[in-house]
Amino acid sequence: MRPITLGVCAAFFFAFTFIFNRMMDLSGGSWIWSASLRYFFMVPMLLIIVLFKKSLVPLFDEMKKRPLSWVLWSTIGFGLFYAPICFAAAYGPGWLIAGTWQITIISGSLLVPLFYETIQTVNGPARIRGRIPYKGLAMSLVILFGVALMQYEQASELSIRYAILCVVPIIIASFAYPLGNRKMMEICAGRLDAWQRVLGMTIASLPFWLILSCYSFITVGMPAKEQIWQSAGVALFAGVFATVLFFAATDLVKGNMRKLGAVESTQSLEVLFAATGEILLLSTIWPSFMSWMGMGLVIVGMVLHSYVSTRTENTVLQAVNKEKFTG
């Protein structure tokens, strides 16, 4: 239950990403600066925490072992995740970004065969290649149906061009984030805590952000003061609080792709938090009855996903133990 609780808390803080990004876009800020500034601010914030924990040296020692892997998967997990999210904010409201982002629930499930998971058997730990959790995937479809229902009225008002420019980048981000996160969990193999891993991935992704920020400086100039402060808010709430909470949740279930999928499904609550935040901060229209029904389906789907994932895990464990016993 603890990983699910941490995932829900992470979803709350992640919602600030969609709200602040929309605020910055409405005020005329560049999406490139919105993306880059977040990670520039995250470095000193996380550095202070890791230094206080006296765990900076072990992090650098770990990064020295496989520097190219750190740069590659951090760029995918952070760069190809957040840059498309900010790009999409220039073409759609926060509720649509948050709603479409829930495709990551399915994306994460489809990535399972790329990894091995560790299960406990009567003969000790065993590593098996992950299988697509079809039952959990069905529960993910319930969540996505709720999201679609919740956003139906608003989404119908967007042009096809804006919808494509908004949706396609988010689909890319939905695969990049869980892929980068899971690959880095494999590389770290439990040797680093969530704070160290987030700081390491932030540092390793800096070349990507420096290239983007240089391009933005040449094309649009320096960011406005308002955008700088808003980016600092995103860095603190979403970049530090949310990311560390989410990584801590995934660390608790590492090696178990079914439970990992359940944790990732908690991010569906970002839609609820983002919708509430836009109502309070941006004075958007109060959701209709249909939208509230969709929110209810999101919550029900999340609970069902967690329940099915746990039952499926037990079934697989029993099957493996039976095979080893009879063999």
Automatic annotation (TrEMBL):
This is Multidrug resistance efflux transporter family protein. It comes from the Bacteria. Coiled coil: none annotated. The keyword rRNA processing does not apply. The chain crosses the membrane at residues 31-50, 70-90, 96-116, 136-152, 158-177, 198-222, 228-248, 269-286. Keywords: Membrane, Transmembrane, Transmembrane helix. It holds the Pfam family EmrE. InterPro entries: EmrE.
